From TrEMBL:
<protein>
    <submittedName>
        <fullName>Uncharacterized protein</fullName>
    </submittedName>
</protein>
<keyword id="KW-0812">Transmembrane</keyword>
<keyword id="KW-1133">Transmembrane helix</keyword>
<keyword id="KW-0472">Membrane</keyword>
<feature type="transmembrane region" description="Helical">
    <location>
        <begin position="60"/>
        <end position="79"/>
    </location>
</feature>
């Protein structure tokens, strides 16, 4: 399973990027592509083991998982609201994911 996590994350991230980019064109399949990709990213992050037992890293991992769940919620917004609410949710998720992607390696390097 450990060797599948990076592949799951990569494929999911590409699907998220593609689904979000083509959603604007009105393609009917775009929300499905996005939501499946977001679910793959969330599963990869939830199942990736943490190398540290420090409290800061645990807090950052919770934030990272929350960001991944917001990615999935963005897909729900794409399906049900048909407005621009999904953009706000995606922006918050992207900020959380970027922040934790930078901070977790920094905190793990302190050990």
């Amino acid at each position: 399973m450990k060797s599948l996590i990076p592949a799951l994350f990569t494929v999911g991230a590409l699907m998220v990027l593609f689904g979000a980019a083509v959603y604007i064109t009105g393609w009917e399949v775009a929300p499905y592509v996005y939501t499946i990709g977001a679910t793959m990213v969330a599963l990869a992050q939830i199942n990736s083991p943490s190398k540290s037992s420090r409290a800061n890293v645990k807090r950052l991992r919770r934030q990272q998982i929350f960001g991944a769940l917001l990615l999935v919620l963005t897909g729900a917004f794409m399906f049900f609201t048909h407005g621009n609410e999904w953009i706000v949710c995606l922006t918050v998720a992207a900020i959380l994911e970027l922040y934790t992607a930078i901070r977790i390696p920094q905190e793990e390097a302190k050990e």
